[in-house]
Design goal:
By secondary structure, the protein is of the alpha/beta class. It contains eight helices and seven strands; from the N terminus they run E-H-E-H-H-E-H-E-H-E-H-E-H-H-E. Helix content is about 40%, strand content about 15%. Helix 5 (about 120-145) links the parallel strand 4 and strand 5 (about 155-160).
């Protein structure tokens, strides 16, 4: 007899925003797979298409191969998180194909630089739809469906404190922080912990030469943050050892100022 599609000793982590191999989401997905998680991960090619870095061909396949190399089951799902119907459909598919989600790691983002005077209404609304509203809806779906052991559920949001010249991104990330921290208390009856992680400037391919120079000068260890730095912290927070860290906005930027 064939086993059930989601019969596995591994818990399932859903990681959003995994569209590039150089990104934080990809590093988190692979690190959690190495630690014993099955991984569902989302991407949205139209976003990468309109960003300066463009679409990375075969990135989703490469990330999937890296996850499976650790013995994990893996599911890649294209997800337009600007659509409010997407979170429920996403959880439906992940649950059907891998099983119930135990950890939700939100690494997705709308991020287009603009300030107080030049941000458009469309851009402002899109940032809040993706960074704040979608995150709330993902957390809500997770809380409504969660049936895991008390104390084992995890919610982690990737955030930022950048605001100057980055109004819609910074403001929507501030809203994300409050939504995530609320979850630590409002989902306490389920035993789910919730934390927001600010990894600081991270070398994922977006930095210009001048930005790199500035970041290096303002970081005590004189190196750039990497996706693996963020992934190591998130891996710890998702582990049993990380259970007591809850309801926190964690700065993990190497002392960058």
């Amino acid at each position: 007899m064939m086993p059930e599609p989601h019969a596995s000793a591994r818990p399932v982590a859903l990681v959003t925003g995994v569209g590039r191999t150089a990104g934080i989401g990809a590093a988190v997905a692979e690190r959690l797979a190495a630690s014993g998680w099955d991984i569902a991960h989302t991407h949205w090619t139209p976003y990468d298409t309109r960003m300066p870095w463009g679409v990375e061909a075969d990135a989703v396949d490469a990330v999937g191969a890296a996850i499976r190399a650790h013995g994990a089951r893996q599911l890649a799902v294209p997800a337009d998180l600007a659509d409010p119907a997407t979170p429920a459909r996403l959880f439906d598919r992940v649950t059907a194909e891998l099983g119930p989600v135990t950890a939700l790691v939100m690494s997705h983002a709308e991020s287009v630089d603009s300030g107080l005077l030049d941000t458009t209404l469309d851009s402002f609304d899109r940032h809040f739809a993706v960074n704040a509203r979608a995150s709330w809806l993902l957390i809500r779906e997770f809380g409504l469906r969660y049936t895991g052991p008390f104390g084992s559920g995890r919610i982690i949001a990737l955030t930022s404190d950048h605001t100057v010249g980055n109004l819609p991104y910074g403001a929507s990330k501030g809203a994300l922080d409050r939504i995530t921290l609320a979850a630590a208390h409002e989902l306490a009856h389920l035993g789910i912990t919730a934390n927001a992680v600010d990894p600081g400037p991270t070398d994922t391919g977006w930095m210009t030469g001048d930005v790199r120079t500035d970041v290096l000068a303002r970081t005590p260890l004189a190196r750039l943050g990497t996706p693996r730095d963020a992934a190591r912290l998130i891996d710890f927070l998702c582990s049993p050892a990380g259970q007591w860290i809850n309801g926190q906005l964690l700065q993990s930027s190497g002392g960058f100022k």
